Amino acid sequence: MKKIRSILVILTMCVLLTNCASFSEVGKVMRNEKTGNTDEFLIKKREPLTQPPDYNVLPTPNSVKTEKKEKITEILNKNKNTNNSKNKSSSAEQSIIEQIKQ
To answer: Model pTM?
Structure first.
């Protein structure tokens, strides 16, 4: 009975010590020494918030939308103009003459 108990104690100690990897690590764990890693809960001080320099210069409401609409209409008008010019040129000579004029 004593042999079984001593074997169990030795096995549990071996398991515990192998999980710690070395005797120096066992000592650190037993003394509850902190390691030198970064503090994940450290709060760094920051400068106070300031207003941007162009805060008083604000765009008018819906100005971005109107600019986008204007760009879209310009693009559509350009496409229509190019389609019309493509339809007019039926021969290779006319297209060469148009390129020379431009």
So the answer is: 0.26
